[in-house]
Amino acid sequence: MNGILGEPDGATPLDPDELEGLKFDHITTRGELDELEQANIQAGLLWLGRRRKTDILTDDFLRELHRRLFGDVWGWAGTYRLREKNIGIDPMMIGVSIRHLLGDAKFWVENTTYPPLEAAARFHHRLVQIHPFANGNGRHARIAADTYLTECFEHAPIDWENGADLTNNNERRDAYIAALRAADGHDYDPLLEFVGCGDCNNDNG
Fold first, then answer.
1. Where is the active site (predicted)?
2. Among 38, 66, 115, 176, which has the highest number of CB atoms less than 10 A from its own CB?
3. Which residues are catalytic?
4. pLDDT at residue 151 in the model
5. Domain 16-194, CATH among 3.20.20.70, 1.10.1740.10, 1.20.1330.10, 1.10.3290.10
């Protein structure tokens, strides 16, 4: 396979080696791939809801979550990427950066550093910024952030899509990508507004 046609704006292109991990040879378009991944994600969410509750702020959990969400579609699901991308940090730094993020996330819970929605938004942004996997980072990070909210703060999950589909080009996706890019520059206001926390106190950090 040479590529997936119809990538949405802001998506990370897959290189030929990564595409070799696709378990279905007949897939040629982003729409076809999205259908397969969405079915896998639904199965992963069932696993997430039924699993025995354990500490979610671990490297093992984040990788297992990705494998459950995408492992029926990609052979490398749950494995940190080994190649440079147009987004994300150096692959050699992924492991240590994840550990730093998880340590910070635990500190935020234990010290009530941020309101729950702000903590989840910052957790989500950092995870996307690291971009640990070859594909599925946004969806994985949104589900991980919701799990952080529900299990660490006993707070309802975020309405990320608000009636839209964030895997396709639309105004909601444009606002989401813009909010993440603003957060890259340490301006969290658009992201907090996006997740419904426009009145959060974001003067910290």
1. 131
2. 66
3. 131
4. 96
5. 1.10.3290.10
